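Problem 12. The chain below contains 319 residues. Write out its predicted structure in token notation.
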Amino acid sequence: MSIKRTDLNLLIYFDALLRERNVTRAADQLGITQPAMSNSLRRLRELFGDPLLIRTSEGMSPTERALELQPMVRDILAKVELAVQPQTEFDAASAKRMFRIMASDYAESTLLPPLLTTLTAAAPGITLDILNPSDVTLQDVEQGRVDMLLNRFDDMPQSFHQVTVWEDDFSCLLSRENPLLAGFNLDNYLLGRHVWVSKTGMGVGVGMNPQDAQRLGWVDESLKKLGKTRNITVFTRHYQVAALLAQQPDLMVTVPSRLANLQRTNPTVAIMPPPFEIPAFELKMAWSPLLQHNPAHQWMRRLVLETGRAINHKSAGET
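Solution.
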């Protein structure tokens, strides 16, 4: 039977009947007469081709088909109720909800700590569930199961919304005991043993090929334009691990400057500008079109962007 010829009010009657398992009580709950509810039960039986409720010594008992239908009907009614509710302003101070955010290790280290500080003060009832890129698929985001993505993206479905949080360049981290630190130039850079670190996009990562400069990313593509390659000793997908490895006297790492600056009070490492030009990149926030007009989601996106601007302003003041 076509849905166009189905009285969708029957789903409301079905829900009441399955909850009450009594025609009279279900009628009272909906404010209709007992004969009207009995007529609705008859029509429901015709619609689904099943008795749905059977009279037993213990009262009305649902059939297997009725129990199968109950959660589906309840879900449909809940979504309809949500859809017809008037849009209200999101009250962050009293809100109790969770935001699921896929964040790269870079975004997690640089953006999330100050974001959490602001959240604690402005919205203490909000919880964040931070997911790794390997935890999430594009389908998860498209269907709204993940609220937003914070990462660098080579490509993104055109249906997704996205905005730039900030732009960043690169810095080199190396131990103050590294002999190559004196007169740090391109020749010394190329003599060093390097830690490669990156994880863009989503999904499970794959092994790296040191000869594939394009897949290695911005740093190695920039060196390739100069006809140079670096000696990569360690491949990692975690920026904090790379920063720790940079403390080794024979290793160096080239990372985004905002992440390198987290080590500015570390007396064991030096932060140096790369001795060659590396293009800047953008940290982006992306989300599903399903969440574009959600008031809570709009509030959270504004907070992320405001936090990013504050970090940008602070970084500009430090340079």
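Discussion. The first helix runs from residue 9 to 20. Students who got a different answer should revisit the alignment rule from Section 12.3.
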